[in-house]
Design brief:
Rossmann fold; 4-stranded mixed sheet; alpha/beta; single chain; 9 helices; 3-stranded parallel sheet; 2 domains; Glycerate kinase, domain 2
């Protein structure tokens, strides 16, 4: 089986790139390697793990969170016992609800920051060298942004190239480390307005913030 080296396959929230490589364990076709590109550094378990960080965002109750954590712990223990592998504490193991852990355990996958994989594939750095201003965006700009999310990667690359970089976001925390990545952050969120109305008028607010940013350039 031959697979083009730049062919991306989306699996859940994890992007895979399959390429020709050295022989792998017999559970994979011998000529393939899997690189899982993730946008978080969360381990599988614990306070910063897949369950406790991401399950509440999906509406899981406290009871459900406990059940999920116990289940993932049993899975990690079983993998350790059966295969002699233990990736539960590896950065990215908690990506996509623990899919990162599964890919490392069962597919001998390598975990890499998604931004790095995509940036290399499209030659982002060389393209960014020729621009005057860099603008990126995200739904919520917060501490998780620093854990491998695209806006942080874009901002750091812009800083490396000495380019001004701005973010237009749905909302942003007051975290100093996050905000200092950018020359300025423009929030769409409007005080005193319901979330439903803000979402309905998101395009309008985006245009307003884009104009506001343009006037500063």
């Amino acid at each position: 089986m031959t697979v083009d080296s730049e062919w991306p396959v989306r699996l859940g929230f994890v992007f895979l790139r399959i390429r020709n490589s050295k022989p792998q364990p017999t559970r994979l076709p011998p000529q393939l390697t899997i690189v899982a590109a993730v946008d978080v550094r969360s381990p599988l378990l614990g306070a910063n793990g897949a369950t406790r960080v991401f399950a509440p965002q999906k509406g899981a109750s406290e009871n459900t969170i406990e059940v999920l954590e116990r289940s993932l712990t049993k899975l990690a223990d079983a993998v350790s016992k059966e295969f002699g592998l233990d990736y539960r504490d590896e950065a990215g193991a908690g990506a996509a609800g623990g899919l990162g852990f599964g890919l490392m355990s069962f597919c001998n996958a390598t975990i890499r920051p998604g931004f790095d994989v995509v940036a290399e594939a499209i030659g982002l750095e060389s393209k960014m060298k020729d621009v005057d201003v860099v603008i990126t965006g995200e739904g919520s700009l917060d501490r998780q942004t620093l854990e491998g999310k695209t806006p942080a990667g874009v901002a750091r690359l812009a800083r490396k190239l000495d380019k001004p970089v701005f973010a237009i976001v749905g909302r942003a925390s007051k975290d100093r480390e996050v905000r200092e990545l950018f020359d300025n952050v423009y929030e769409l969120a409007q005080r005193g307005m319901s979330q439903k109305e803000q979402m309905a008028r998101a395009a309008e607010f985006l245009q307003e913030k884009a104009r506001e940013l343009a006037k500063t350039l």
